[in-house]
Amino acid sequence: MSEGAQPTPPDAAPLLAGARYHKSKVISYVALHLLCLTAFLVPFSWDCLALCVGLYYFRILGITAGFHRYFSHKSFQTSRAFQLLLALWANTAFMRGPLTWARAHRHHHRVSDAAEDFHSPGQLGLAFAHTGWFLTQDYDEANTLPVRDLERCGELRFLDRHYWIPTLGLALLCYLGGGLPWLIWGGLISLILSWHGTFTINSLAHRWGSQRYATGDESRNSLLLALLTCGEGWHNNHHHQMNAARQGHRVWEWDPTWYLIWLWSKLGLVWEVVEVDWERAEASLLQRNPGPSEGALSP
Ligand SMILES: [Zn+2]
Ligand SMILES: [Zn+2]
After folding, report:
1. Residue 106 CA: which ligand is closest?
2. Which of 141, 155, 233, 263 could form a disulfide with 226 if both were Cys (CB 3.0 to 4.6 A apart)?
3. Distance between CA 72 and CA 147 in Å, rounded?
4. Nearest ligand for residue 70 CA
5. How far does residue 201's CA lie from ligand 2's centre (Å)?
6. How many Cα atoms occupy the beta-carbon half-sphere of 155 within 13 Å?
7. CA 202 / ligand 2 centre spacing (Å)
8. DSSP state of 163
9. C-alpha to C-alpha distance for 235 and 58, rounded to whole angstroms
10. Could you tell me the end-to-end alpha-carbon distance of the chain, in angstroms, rounded to an integer?
């Protein structure tokens, strides 16, 4: 994929600033959050909590490895069958389909923290960047960047239209495995948490944390966000080299999505993994002589 060859997207933020909300989406979004309270109506057990945490990270990994590093950035190449598997996996998080997600995310990198950014906390406020922009009609109308490399695959177009199928499938599996308590904790609460875990990268990762590289935007690095999002919290690293499969640039920078991609490459499931350009990284350091806590860049 050549992201540089794509046309400039239309202005979005001026529209989003006076946002026109989809009433039905807002009601559904709030209702799903309120439904989480039904957890108080069923008996609590530790297996429910374990399922919730397990499926939280399962969904987050699907988003980070699938929708983000593969579909949005093509950080590696893979077979069409494995590509479909990634799309199905990521779609268990009910965050629209692979085309829509990648289209919006590529747009974010093109205009990051500028007036046209769909979800810049510096432009539209933290709450709207976190949760709000995707509930508007303006976003739907402005999210038009072509993603031709993905659009040519019929199965991806199908999943983009019917993105709810894998989410419902996983919810059904939860119900069959443990009845109503598993449905609530694994199918619903875990889902809502995975949304907010992902949304922190749109909001907090452009507000809180440290900047290592001169990227011309407000992207930040945060260990806490990296722990919550399987490595996506190294967001300043990512904005510096958005196509690199690895986002943790120090050996201690926790990046399980990268460990998984590395393992897949060793197993032959993926190939042409995009490496970090360490020379370019070194040249872009904001602090050219890092202290002992920072250490040297290391592959
Ligand atoms: Zn960003
Ligand atoms: Zn990205």
Report:
1. 2
2. 233
3. 9
4. 2
5. 10
6. 10
7. 10
8. T
9. 20
10. 24
